[in-house]
Amino acid sequence: MPNTASKNTTKAKAATSKKTVSGSSSKRQAKQQAVGKNPLRPSQVQNTYSDEQSLISAHQKDPVQRGVRTLSPNAEQEAEAARVKAMEEELERLRAQVKSQVNNAPQEKKKVCMIPKPPGEYGKDYQLIVAMGLESNKPKYTCILKQPPEKKIYVLLKARKIEPYLKRFNGDWATADIMKQALHSFRFSSRRQDTNNSDDNGEDGEDEEEPENSDEEEENVEYQSECDEED
């Protein structure tokens, strides 16, 4: 019997200790649940408050972040005008860039179609204006012919610079024929003037010069008639 009583006493103590442990664990769980409802600690609450204050101050410093609602009507108009001006400046910059690229782009040289010298002799077998391909552009042909006399000796060297159309002729044959024609006209005019002077002085040289002058005059008239036909 005494042993049974001691056993019962031991069981009662064990049950009491279990209750105490379970009670303390339940209290601990209740505290944890209470802490779970408010997870922020005092230090965390202070940090959150400081973060909010920094965000508010930054928002006040940057007017763009505050939105359009915080701007006055005049400020909105000024901001819109500034945006439009910036867009126009960017557009002008792009236009200038494109124009610069176009101007600096390497230009392709136009291929010049060369015109060969026709067979025969100028004045007999072919007409110069036709051979040069200018029968439909007589003003250009006339402009080429009417070079100042003092520049005739530089024709072969400078004719291409004076008139780019002359680059089309192989060996500058058209330029050479132009020189011949110009010199022929110049000689004919000089001889006729000398003949007139000799007539005024009473010299008997008319018979000697008449055949040569008549031939040159006839050739010049023939060429003039050919030019008239081309018109």
Describe this structure in words.
The protein starts with a helix and ends with a helix. The chain has helices spanning 2-37, 42-61, 73-104, 128-131, 138-145, 155-162, 173-201, 206-230. It contains 8 helices and no strands. It has 231 residues and is mostly helical. Helix 7 packs across helix 8 (206-230).
Question: Distance between termini?
Answer: 160 Å
- Beta strand %: under 5%
**Could you state the order of secondary-structure elements as H and E?**
HHHHHHHH
Structural class: mainly alpha
Instruction: Give the overall shape.
Output: rod-shaped
How much is the radius of gyration in Å?
A: 56 Å
Mean pLDDT: 67
Stretches with pLDDT under 50, minimum 5 residues? 204-231
- Tally of helical runs: 8
Q: How many β-strands, per DSSP? A: 0
What percent of the residues sit in helical stretches (DSSP H or I)?
A: over 70%
Largest sheet: none
Q: Which secondary structure elements does this structure contain, and how are they paired or packed?
A:
Blueprint: H1 2-37, H2 42-61, H3 73-104, H4 128-131, H5 138-145, H6 155-162, H7 173-201, H8 206-230
Helix pairs in contact: 7-8
List keywords for this structure.
single chain, 231 residues, mainly alpha, 70% helix, 0% strand, rod-shaped
Short summary of the structure?
The protein has 231 residues and is mainly α. The chain has helices spanning 2-37, 42-61, 73-104, 128-131, 138-145, 155-162, 173-201, 206-230.
